[in-house]
């Protein structure tokens, strides 16, 4: 029995004692194959999943390394069944490969072939009724032709039945376009450079970085590496503008080279930024803007916020398998559980760094998370008790008992850039009125939004009240206080986004504050508990205080 | 040997004391009940039941040689056997034949080896896939038809298709159905006409043994395996650590099972056993797969830790023994489990399996009882113990080895059972990473020789050592160990008490169990990690105060409002709770946990519920004050709930009477809404009576020695009586053991000679008859008497028999 920092559990989780002297070495050893699930202050929980193991295989690790890492760092004997399972699972990756084969006689010159080293495996998958139609002529015992258009779907289906294919078919270079990073007065941070390198060597895949860690720059770095026309898919128009601004600032690209393809404008240029929404718009039952994907010979496709990628985009992505794809996200956790599709269609995880590590390196602000509990007045408690279940959340989270607390907090942090975030418009307007602040909701025009953001950025206004439109991809570098007054039923993703709002590095190294105001003894508090758990799992200790004690 | 024997009885009478001891040790059933003399010992050794038992215990090597002796016919010489077996390994065959002789399946005559008459019966007609001899199949056949040279010549000139047809039957089955179609019939007809096939019915034919042997080129078996197949093994490290981890986890599972069933015991099905639904609930509680759950449940039952409580509505509840078990030291707890497992005749892997015509077998139910599993368990462990420490056997080769040891068992069933035993050993920690752990070795040590009843160990080991040169050294050493083991165990059987064994096993495991920890690490996400098994008190506190989220080397607990409430319900106060957590935690207790505890405590007990049988209400508070103060009313145990309300647990009528006696004027308000305070006591079933196990005094050397001495004495007396008898004229028939009588009669049938029998009639008078028995069957003997009439004699009336002349 050695005294390692790692404890391997029978449910395939790994517990890492962070304060152990060898914790860092152990973390480095297990990071390639285990997903960090929870990172509270003392013991981090990693989980071994088939996806994680295949990710590791894709990154060139083998089962022996995995087993060795577990045995070396484990405090107790590792259950044999788990070791066997690891070896078996990893062995499944790479039994099937997708390759491109030269074919001098045909017009296309090449064909796509699914090849195996193990005949029974090929027989098994070809017997599968969803896979059979995706393949063509059988070449020999060990290979079968694949329709190039089915490359993505095939990978998706193979993963579903547990035989992930290694995609060695390579990528088209796309239309070349000169792009360089303009590193004057700034440089890619080391982890950003690692992320770019990891992606480029892997060919395609996902980079996981916390909010505020500069994902846009990783995208820019990847473009500079590809030096080809690029299609960037983002969640909304504001985010599109920010990408554009950032690219102009950080790269040799000029305004004329970057096009915006959104509801308002339809420009197709060497670098085109499109929103998911415009791509998924249907007219007469058909996707109206599918042509965009073939409008140019794209050399690189960038997906911002992969965890929000809508299902139709997955389907379209299945047809883009010959192009390099870069996914950017803060978390691989998808609330719809489609992690496997991300893996098979965009690619394996190529880079990952826990928030705390990046925070420790000073790139994101430390945060002080506080849950403030208010008691409902007796009248409201009664109303809450007799209300219909579907009404309860709204009733509890919109309690006016929260208003004085918001005011008090705003006063405490007067002068600091403060965001008040909420779900219900009535409540937001009421708060805005009491604080004398502006409101940004879905109804606010893009132009007005941009104006308010600019004013906020320059410090002209210090308080903004925003609805959930602000959840994604806005960039408010100097917000150091966030007050959350209502949310969508404890979504973990939302919590990550909101926390991200205040985690951008502060000029003066101030601590960021993140307040959540909840009504005691209601569903509001239950949902809050969920989100708090997520925060704690991300390593952010939080406090619970009563409103009276503020 | 002084004089050549003429029969098995003769052979046995001629054996030395040591040889007799070997025989009885090899076939213990001969000693129970103790036979009167050597003749009846010999007769018993020839009975079908005993021979069957002896043959079932043979491994494939011994069985193959025995088959060869049978096929070689009477007076088989060693060369015949070597030829039939197609081997030139004279020493091995010789040793095996000696083994067979020692266990009296074969006896030595002047001309060679003979099998005991019942052996061919037990082996059946189709020995090694061969058909019956020509003469048996067709009594009318000519002797030259069975002549190998004739057969060889006929085969040589056989048409192509006819030859192909018999060749298909070469390695059995030696029976065939005649083809319906014409070409096939013609092919077969040629074979029938040339006496290569023999018709047995209108459309069935048989391949006579002689033809089969020619086709097999004189060899009896397709492959001869006189020595055990080697077990492939790979060396693994950290065996004991892995076993310790598994053992620790196994103990945790039982703790959780006991906690769950103690609080909420599942029903006992009418047919016995645990319902599928309850098993699934338990499975969720333990968070294991179904088979593992069944194993844990059956293990608890085998160790007597849970039992049917025998109430009117019976439930499976932890027994009173569990409290003692829980409080003992971890190594001991494990030893108790492991020993119970080894001795159990229950096969958890059968749970959920459908037996014929019935539903799936229920855990703890009667269908899971399968006595054979005990022997298989011991054999598997014994094979594991025969490997070097730290060797994990390849499962396929281990199954092969066990199949070799027990060729009579159905291969599929055996393989499945072996896999199950290996799996269970791993769960229990008897093995770690596939290799036998130190504790497992201690566990199996005393059992190894016992399960090893079949004929003489030493010789077989020599054979294995001789043949298997690469493993030679190991095999020799193995034998030495085993022999020592055998000797010491038989001598010290009485001395190795179960307690001593438990001690040894416990000590072997204790060293490798993860040492218990006395602290936890509490984190802001309201989880607590116990980085090892927790010491008793803290362990039960954590099980009460938090939910288990993940198990293994460590345990992850999560504090939830429900779990905190559970602890408060059990009598913990918020302060004690926080204090205990703070004391046990190596890390500062996060503020949210303290907040959670105080928040739950704040609400805990906001409303209170109790039981009362009667209430007293009055608008005049002073009256109630008087009642409370009254000494005479003290037995009513009045309590004040509000200024105007008192309650009592006395019946309202009693209350009214007593108050009237004391000068009050109460009015009975009528009864409604009495609440019964239900307290759920922890149930415990009475201990299942488990004696020290069946009292079996072993058939060991001292016992056998006494037995043989007795036999010798009886033999001497019998000789003396015979001598006396000879002086009187006429055959004198003395009362004999029926087994001896029967064997005499069978011999007479086979050798076609007459016997004198004593026969008692309906009045109890015994008369003598000279008969020629023809058939012994169904308790009757058919025979022709002196007058030549065929008659039938009841065997139970025959007092004795003696051969004519």
From TrEMBL, chain B:
<feature type="region of interest" description="Disordered">
    <location>
        <begin position="458"/>
        <end position="498"/>
    </location>
</feature>
<feature type="compositionally biased region" description="Polar residues">
    <location>
        <begin position="486"/>
        <end position="496"/>
    </location>
</feature>
<protein>
    <recommendedName>
        <fullName>Helicase XPB/Ssl2 N-terminal domain-containing protein</fullName>
    </recommendedName>
</protein>
<dbReference type="InterPro" id="IPR032830">
    <property type="entry name" value="XPB/Ssl2_N"/>
</dbReference>
<feature type="region of interest" description="Disordered">
    <location>
        <begin position="678"/>
        <end position="702"/>
    </location>
</feature>
<feature type="domain" description="Helicase XPB/Ssl2 N-terminal">
    <location>
        <begin position="520"/>
        <end position="642"/>
    </location>
</feature>
<feature type="compositionally biased region" description="Low complexity">
    <location>
        <begin position="458"/>
        <end position="472"/>
    </location>
</feature>
<dbReference type="Pfam" id="PF13625">
    <property type="entry name" value="Helicase_C_3"/>
</dbReference>
């Amino acid at each position: 029995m050695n005294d390692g920092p790692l404890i391997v559990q029978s449910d395939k989780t790994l517990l890492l004692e962070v304060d152990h002297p060898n914790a860092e070495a152990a973390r480095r050893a297990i990071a390639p194959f285990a997903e960090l699930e929870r990172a509270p202050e003392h013991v981090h929980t990693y989980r071994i999943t088939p996806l994680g193991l295949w990710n590791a295989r894709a990154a060139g690790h083998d089962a022996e390394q995995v087993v060795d890492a577990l045995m070396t760092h484990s405090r107790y004997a590792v259950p044999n069944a788990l070791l066997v399972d690891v070896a078996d699972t990893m062995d499944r990756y790479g039994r099937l490969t997708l390759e491109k084969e030269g074919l001098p006689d045909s017009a296309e010159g090449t064909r796509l072939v699914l090849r195996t080293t193990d005949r029974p495996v090929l027989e098994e998958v070809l017997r599968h009724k969803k896979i059979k139609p995706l393949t063509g002529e059988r070449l020999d015992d060990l290979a079968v032709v694949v329709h190039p258009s089915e490359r993505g779907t095939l990978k998706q289906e193979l993963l579903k039945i547990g035989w992930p294919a290694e995609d060695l078919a390579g990528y088209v270079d796309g239309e070349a376009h000169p792009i360089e990073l303009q590193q004057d007065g700034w440089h890619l941070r080391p982890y950003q450079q690692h992320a770019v390198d990891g992606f480029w060597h892997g060919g395609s895949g996902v980079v996981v970085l916390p909010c505020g860690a500069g994902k846009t720059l990783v995208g820019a770095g990847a473009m500079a590496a590809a030096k080809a026309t690029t299609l960037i898919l983002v969640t909304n128009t504001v985010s599109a503008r920010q990408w554009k601004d950032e690219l102009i600032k950080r790269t040799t690209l000029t305004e004329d080279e970057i096009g915006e393809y959104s509801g308002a404008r339809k420009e197709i240029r060497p670098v085109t930024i499109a929103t998911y929404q415009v791509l998924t718009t249907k007219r007469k039952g058909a996707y109206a803007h599918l042509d965009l994907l073939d409008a140019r010979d794209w050399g690189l496709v960038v997906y911002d916020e992969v965890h929000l990628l809508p299902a139709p985009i997955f389907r379209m992505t299945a047809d883009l398998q010959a192009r390099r794809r870069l996914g950017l996200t803060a978390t691989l956790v998808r609330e719809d559980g489609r992690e496997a599709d991300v893996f098979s269609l965009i690619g394996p995880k190529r880079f990952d760094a826990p928030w705390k590590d990046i925070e420790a390196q000073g790139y994101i602000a430390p945060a002080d998370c506080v849950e403030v509990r208010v008691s409902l007045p007796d009248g409201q408690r009664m109303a809450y008790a007799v209300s219909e279940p579907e009404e309860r959340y709204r009733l509890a989270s919109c309690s006016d008992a929260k208003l004085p607390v918001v005011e008090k907090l705003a006063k405490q942090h007067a002068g600091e850039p403060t965001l008040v975030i909420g779900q219900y418009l009535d409540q937001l307007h009421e708060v805005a009125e009491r604080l004398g602040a502006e409101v940004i909701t879905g109804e606010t025009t893009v132009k007005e939004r941009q104006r308010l953001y600019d004013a906020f950025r320059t410090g002209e206004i210090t308080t903004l009240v925003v609805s959930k439109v602000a959840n994604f991809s806005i960039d408010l570098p100097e917000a150091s206080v966030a007050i959350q007054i209502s949310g969508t039923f404890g979504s973990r993703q939302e919590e990550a986004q909101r926390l991200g709002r205040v985690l951008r590095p502060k000029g003066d190294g101030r601590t960021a504050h993140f307040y959540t105001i909840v009504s005691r003894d209601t569903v509001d508090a239950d949902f809050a508990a969920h989100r708090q758990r997520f925060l704690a799992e991300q390593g952010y200790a939080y406090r619970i205080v009563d409103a009276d004690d503020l | 040997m002084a004089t050549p024997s003429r029969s098995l009885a003769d052979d046995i009478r001629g054996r030395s004391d040591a040889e007799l001891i070997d025989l009885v040790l090899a076939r213990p059933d001969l000693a129970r009940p103790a036979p009167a003399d050597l003749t009846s010992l010999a007769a018993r050794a020839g009975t079908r039941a005993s021979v069957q038992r002896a043959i079932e215990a043979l491994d494939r090597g011994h069985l193959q040689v025995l088959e060869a002796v049978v096929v070689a016919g009477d007076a088989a010489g060693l060369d015949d056997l070597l030829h039939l077996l197609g081997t030139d390994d004279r020493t091995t065959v010789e040793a095996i034949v000696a083994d067979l002789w020692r266990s009296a399946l074969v006896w030595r005559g002047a001309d060679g080896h003979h099998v005991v008459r019942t052996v061919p019966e037990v082996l059946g007609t189709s020995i090694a896939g061969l058909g019956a001899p020509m003469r048996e199949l067709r009594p009318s056949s000519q002797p030259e038809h069975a002549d190998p040279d004739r057969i060889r010549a006929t085969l040589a000139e056989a048409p192509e298709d006819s030859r192909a047809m018999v060749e298909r039957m070469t390695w059995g089955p030696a029976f065939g159905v005649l083809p319906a179609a014409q070409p096939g019939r013609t092919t077969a007809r040629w074979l029938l006409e040339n006496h290569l096939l023999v018709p047995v019915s209108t459309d069935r034919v048989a391949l006579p043994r002689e033809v089969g042997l020619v086709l097999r080129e004189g060899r009896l078996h397709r492959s001869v395996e006189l020595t055990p197949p080697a077990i492939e093994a790979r060396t693994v490290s950290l065996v004991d650590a892995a076993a310790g981890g598994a053992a620790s986890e196994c103990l945790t599972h039982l703790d959780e099972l006991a906690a769950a069933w103690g609080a909420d015991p599942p029903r006992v099905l009418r047919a016995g056993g645990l319902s599928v639904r309850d098993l699934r609930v338990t499975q969720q509680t333990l968070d294991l797969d179904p088979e593992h759950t069944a194993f844990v449940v059956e293990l608890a039952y085998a160790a007597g830790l849970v039992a049917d409580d025998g109430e009117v509505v019976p439930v499976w509840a932890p027994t009173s023994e569990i409290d003692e078990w829980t409080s003992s030291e971890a190594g001991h707890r494990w030893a108790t489990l492991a020993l119970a497992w080894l001795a159990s005749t229950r096969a958890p892997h059968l749970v959920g399996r459908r037996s014929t015509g019935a539903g799936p077998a229920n855990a703890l139910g009667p269908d899971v009882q399968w006595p054979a599993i005990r022997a298989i368990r011991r054999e598997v462990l014994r094979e594991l113990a025969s490997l070097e420490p730290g060797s994990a056997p390849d499962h396929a080769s281990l199954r092969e080895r066990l199949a070799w040891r027990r060729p009579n068992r159905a291969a599929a069933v055996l393989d499945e059972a072996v896999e199950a035993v290996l799996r269970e050993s791993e769960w229990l920690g008897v093995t770690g990473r596939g290799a036998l752990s130190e504790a497992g070795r201690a566990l199996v040590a005393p059992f190894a020789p016992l399960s090893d009843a079949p004929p003489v160990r030493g010789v077989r080991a020599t054979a294995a050592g001789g043949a298997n040169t690469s493993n030679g050294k190991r095999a020799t050493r193995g034998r030495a160990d085993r022999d020592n083991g055998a000797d010491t165990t038989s001598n010290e059987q009485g001395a190795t008490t179960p307690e001593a064994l438990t001690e040894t096993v416990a000590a072997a495991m204790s060293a490798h169990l993860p040492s218990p920890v006395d602290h936890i690490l509490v984190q802001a996400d309201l989880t607590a990690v116990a980085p090892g098994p927790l010491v008793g008190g803290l362990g039960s506190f954590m099980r009460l105060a938090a939910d288990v989220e993940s198990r293994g080397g460590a345990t992850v607990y999560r504090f939830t409002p429900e779990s905190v409430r559970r602890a408060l319900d059990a009598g913990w106060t918020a302060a004690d709770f926080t204090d205990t957590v703070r004391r046990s935690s190596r890390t500062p207790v996060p503020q949210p946990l303290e907040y959670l505890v105080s928040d739950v405590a704040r609400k805990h007990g906001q409303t209170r519920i109790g039981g009362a049988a009667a209430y007293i209400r009055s608008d005049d508070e002073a009256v109630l004050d008087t009642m409370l103060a009254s000494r005479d009313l003290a037995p009513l145990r009045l309590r004040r709930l509000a200024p105007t309300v008192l309650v009592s647990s006395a019946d309202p009528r009693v209350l009214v009477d007593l108050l009237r006696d004391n000068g009050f004027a109460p009015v009975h308000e009528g009864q409604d809404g009495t609440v019964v305070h239900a307290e759920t006591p922890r149930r415990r079933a009475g201990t299942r009576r488990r004696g020290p196990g069946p009292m079996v005094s072993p058939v060991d050397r001292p016992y056998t020695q006494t037995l043989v001495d007795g036999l010798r004495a009886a033999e001497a007396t019998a000789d003396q009586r015979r001598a006396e008898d000879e002086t009187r004229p006429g055959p004198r028939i003395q009362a004999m053991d029926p087994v001896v009588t029967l064997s005499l009669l069978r011999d007479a049938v086979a050798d076609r000679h007459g016997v004198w029998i004593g026969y008692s009639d309906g009045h109890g008078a015994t008369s003598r008859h000279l008969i020629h028995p023809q058939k012994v069957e169904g308790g009757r003997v058919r025979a022709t008497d002196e007058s030549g009439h065929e008659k039938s004699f009841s065997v139970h009336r025959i007092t004795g028999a003696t051969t004519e002349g």
